[in-house]
Amino acid sequence: MSETGSNKDVSQESLPSEQATAHDGAVTPAGNPFADPGLPPHQPRIQDIDERAAKRSERTVALLFVVSMLATIGFIASYVVFPIDKIVYIFPFGHVSALNFALGLTLGTALFCIGAGAVHWARTLMSDVEIADERHPIGAESEAKATVMADFRQGAAESGFGRRKLLRNTLFGAVALVPLSGVVLLRDLGPLPGDKLRHTLWAKGKLLVNQNTNEPLRPEDIPVGSLTFVKPEGLEEDDHEFNVEIAKAAVMVVRIQPEDIKDKKELDWSHEGIVAYSRICTHVGCPVTLYEQSTHHVLCPCHQSTFDMADGARVIFGPAGHALPQLRIGVNQDGYLEALGDFAEPVGPSFWERG
Hints:
Layout: E1 20-21, E2 27-28, H1 46-49, H2 51-81, E3 87-90, E4 94-97, H3 98-124, H4 142-159, H5 165-177, H6 179-185, E5 208-210, E6 227-232, H7 242-249, E7 251-255, H8 264-268, E8 274-278, E9 290-292, E10 297-299, E11 306-308, E12 314-317, E13 326-327, E14 329-331, E15 337-339
Helix pairs in contact: 2-3, 2-5
Family: Belongs to the Rieske iron-sulfur protein family.
Pfam families: QcrA_N, Rieske
Subcellular location: Cell membrane
């Protein structure tokens, strides 16, 4: 009885060989029934065979880069031209902020044109030949590094970056201008301080007003050894900018025996031993509130910076960096204490641009 379907009926010719050849000539490795199709034949682009088409692509890419540059300039111009509260109607968005719409449109156009120009450059002018390479260990050998550098130089040559100066220059222009948008946006960190940190509401002729009674002060209202907090005339607590202004203009007035004042400038800027100093600590801006009559020292309660009111309010202890600024005072024709000008230096903590 014969064994139907057994391996003995299969001829050796029917078994797969170590290497089989597919019908199209591709080689099939042993144990793999699928042939390697390889890469399709390269089809040249119109730009590869027609220099006029390449020039058209070059001009298109350059135009996109130029539009990007113009959009960046438009972004900066929009930031300057449009007021922040201007509302316009734009179909189909409705009523929108003119500034936000202009900034978004111009910045989006600038970035899109750089990207579109780079993509069009790569698709039409750079080499599109596909290259198959074998996998290799992560740690490249010297030969592999040399190959990479050679490929890089070849890619740079094929991209036309060195030969097509119009593309290169317009790309540089677009990429160089786009970061200016971010620089302009730094303006939104807040209004420029200008010289506001150097000036307060004190000016020549401003009366010294008691902050508790809201009444102007006469010399006889301040006994020796007393501490009085004053504000400039015209500053009221219900003013919208009261907290901002009093943070710079708060002043403490102390009366010392003139013979106890050691600093000549302090004596010249006082009136009958009445001295006026900024109440804002020069460490971190806390209000100085504690006064020791016997030593003429004032103390900041935050970090214990101590100032000598009889010696130009110099720092004698603590982390404060410099003396309290003095306000020059006098008496007007009505007998009231008045300022003879603003502080000669900025009040409060030091800041980086302080002169």
